[in-house]
């Protein structure tokens, strides 16, 4: 193997070690189990699919503390293989015993890419979603498990994922930039030149995970990508992107985009499927929302095109880089029917939601 090839392999091993170490600590599991939107939606989805789970063999990809495996056993699974790569598997074994399901739940320590199961499975369950959906790249492991271990026609929980985007006017970032203009008044030292540097730092910081307030959202969200877990391939995950169009609620300065996701569980006992949503309009989850900052604020205008683009860095499979652009200038601006003052504060207010200038990003 070439030097570059060996280095890539070493880097990947180090990345995997760091990644799995982060799941060996209690904090992350505490956060996930305490997220009752997340955990209850999985629990409900598993119980609503008990017809398809009862008497069946299940694979839990990345079992962590084993919580989903135990839900599956409680829903009547004949056998659950709880595959977990990191040392939290030892706690999972204890939890399985404490819940008297060790006859049906077998915790296997190892990566799903390397473990050997004695049989194929009828159901795969996994909680693989990272920030902005793909940040952890764990979905690749689920796809590997699907192709290697799922019987034809098997069930995947969840079975679909969707990505949404909406422009926002984030007041926090503008306050942070303005802060450098206030230093002179406080200390007699002019630091206003720091504002540009601060903007570059914030802009360069990949995604920011934070709770987006609904009053900062400037349009109805647009869905820009959808993944069908039965058919999507690892190759297709290398670039997930799509076009979108948003109609602003009112005049505003757009300084960022909010990206969030939903995952959908089919329900064998109900006509409607079950959706786990990380929308700013839904109860908060530990994923919060992902914020992508623009270089500069853009006044709400018509016919401005942009494309959100989530590209996975193949050398760093547990990270994701985002590229997004806002190109073009306002070709035309049509004031809304009830024209409102063009200020951020007004744009965020409910009163301005009656006004609807339109704009495009591409
Ligand atoms: C987001 S946590 C979910 C844990 C648990 N299923 C739950 O819902 O609380 C993902 C878990 O998957 C494990 N994991 C990630 N990739 C894996 C792989 N390729 N093979 C086995 N385990 C993996 C991580 O160590 C982590 O414990």
From TrEMBL:
Residues 160-303 form the Protein arginine N-methyltransferase domain. Gene3D superfamilies: Hnrnp arginine n-methyltransferase1, Vaccinia Virus protein VP39. Its EC number is 2.1.1.319. It is an enzyme of class 2 (transferase). Pfam families: PrmA, PRMT_C. The keyword Metal-binding does not apply. Residues 308-362 are annotated as: Disordered. Keywords: Methyltransferase, S-adenosyl-L-methionine, Transferase. The keyword S-adenosyl-L-methionine applies. This is Protein arginine N-methyltransferase 6. SUPFAM superfamilies: S-adenosyl-L-methionine-dependent methyltransferases.
């Amino acid at each position: 193997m070439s030097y570059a090839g060996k280095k890539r392999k070493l880097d990947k091993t180090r990345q995997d070690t760091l990644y799995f170490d982060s799941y060996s600590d209690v904090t992350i599991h505490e956060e996930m189990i305490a997220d009752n939107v997340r955990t209850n939606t999985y629990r409900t989805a598993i119980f609503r699919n008990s017809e398809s789970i009862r008497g069946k063999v299940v694979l839990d990809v990345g079992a962590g503390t084993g919580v989903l495996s135990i839900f599956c056993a409680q829903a009547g699974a004949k056998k659950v293989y709880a595959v977990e790569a990191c040392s939290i598997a030892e706690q999972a074994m204890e939890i399985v015993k404490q819940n008297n399901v060790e006859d049906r739940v077998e915790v296997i320590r190892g990566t799903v890419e390397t473990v050997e199961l004695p049989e194929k499975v009828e159901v795969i369950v996994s909680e693989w979603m990272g920030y902005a959906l793909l940040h952890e790249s764990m979905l690749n492991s689920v796809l590997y498990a699907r192709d290697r271990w799922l019987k034809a026609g098997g069930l995947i929980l969840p079975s679909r994922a969707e990505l949404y985007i909406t422009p926002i006017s984030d007041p926090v970032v503008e306050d942070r930039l303005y802060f450098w203009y206030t230093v002179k008044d406080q200390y007699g030292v002019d630091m206003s030149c720091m504002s540009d540097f601060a903007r570059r730092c914030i802009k360069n910081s990949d995604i920011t995970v934070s709770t987006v307030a609904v009053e900062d959202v400037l349009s109805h969200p647009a869905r820009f990508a959808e993944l069908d877990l039965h058919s999507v391939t690892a190759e297709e995950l290398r670039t997930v992107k799509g076009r979108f169009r948003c109609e602003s609620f009112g005049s505003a300065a757009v300084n960022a985009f909010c990206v969030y996701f939903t995952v959908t569980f089919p329900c064998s006992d109900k006509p409607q499927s079950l959706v786990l949503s990380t929308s700013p309009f839904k109860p908060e989850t530990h994923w919060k929302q992902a914020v992508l900052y623009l270089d500069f604020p853009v006044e709400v205008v018509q016919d401005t095109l942009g494309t959100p683009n989530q590209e996975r860095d193949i050398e760093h499979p547990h990270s994701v880089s985002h590229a997004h652009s806002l190109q073009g200038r306002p070709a035309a601006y049509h004031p809304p029917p009830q024209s409102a003052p063009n200020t951020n504060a007004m744009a965020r207010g409910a009163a301005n939601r009656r006004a609807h200038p339109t704009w495009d990003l591409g």
